[in-house]
UniProtKB/TrEMBL annotation:
This is Peptide deformylase. The lineage of its organism: Bacteria, Pseudomonadati, Aquificota, Aquificia, Desulfurobacteriales. Its cofactor is Fe(2+). It is an enzyme of class 3 (hydrolase). It catalyses: N-terminal N-formyl-L-methionyl-[peptide] + H2O = N-terminal L-methionyl-[peptide] + formate. Binds 1 Fe(2+) ion. It comes from Balnearium lithotrophicum. Belongs to the polypeptide deformylase family. The gene is def. The active site is at residue 137. GO terms for biological process: translation.
Length: 177
C-alpha cells in the first residue's frame, strides 16, 4: 500500500527514530509499503520517518526506475554507519523536499551494520550512489535532512527555493484530490 510522504518542515523529519525491537509481520508490511511508496514517487531510498513511522527502518534500491528495479532491494533495520572513506560532492534530492536538488558533500564509501527483517545482524558496504543513499537515509533516522548538510547561506537559499516549490507541490496535490 502506498503511504503518504511526510514533507519538510514536518516535525517528524526532525525527530530521531526509535530502535526496532519486534521483527514481525507489521515490520514486513511497513517495508513492503515503503518500497511501493518509494517506487511510485521515483526515489532510490526511503526512511520510515518519511512515511510518518518513527522506527529505524530504511529501504534502498539504487536501480529504481530501471529494468533492474527490485532485483537488488536493500532493507536496513536499526542501521549504523561503521566506516566512511573518501569524499564526493554530488547533487542530492529528497522525496520529503520535492523538487529541491542541491550539491552535498558525502563520503564516497560507506560501511553499514544493520539487521534484516528476521533480526539477524549483517554488514553491507557501498560506493557512489549506494554509499550516498546509506548516508542520506540514516541521516533521516537521526532527524537530519540533506539541507542540514549545507552551509548556512546555501541552506537559506535552498529553503527560499523550497518554499516556492512546496507551494506549487501543494497546489498539485490539492488538484489531485
Amino acid at each position: 500500500m502506498e503511504r503518504e510522504i511526510v514533507v519538510y518542515p514536518n516535525q517528524v523529519l526532525k525527530t530521531r527514530a526509535e530502535e526496532v525491537k519486534e521483527f514481525n509481520g507489521e515490520l514486513k508490511n511497513l517495508v513492503n509499503d515503503m518500497f511501493e511508496t518509494m517506487y511510485k514517487r521515483g526515489g532510490v531510498g526511503l526512511a520510515a520517518n518519511q512515511v510518518g513511522v518513527l522506527r529505524r527502518v530504511v529501504v534502498i534500491d539504487v536501480n529504481a526506475g530501471t529494468e533492474k528495479q527490485g532485483k537488488e532491494k536493500i532493507v536496513l533495520v536499526n542501521p549504523e554507519i561503521v566506516k566512511l572513506e573518501g569524499e564526493i560532492v554530488k547533487e542530492e534530492g529528497c522525496l520529503s523536499l520535492p523538487g529541491l536538488y542541491k550539491k552535498v558533500k558525502r563520503a564516497a564509501y560507506a560501511k553499514v551494520k544493520a539487521q534484516n527483517l528476521e533480526g539477524e545482524e549483517f554488514e553491507i558496504e557501498g560506493e557512489g550512489l549506494l554509499a550516498r543513499a546509506f548516508q542520506h537515509e540514516i541521516d533521516h533516522l537521526n532527524g537530519i535532512v540533506f539541507i542540514d548538510r549545507l552551509s548556512p547561506l546555501q541552506r537559506r537559499l535552498a529553503l527560499e527555493k523550497y518554499r516556492k516549490l512546496k507551494r506549487e507541490y501543494e497546489r498539485k496535490m490539492a488538484a489531485k484530490k
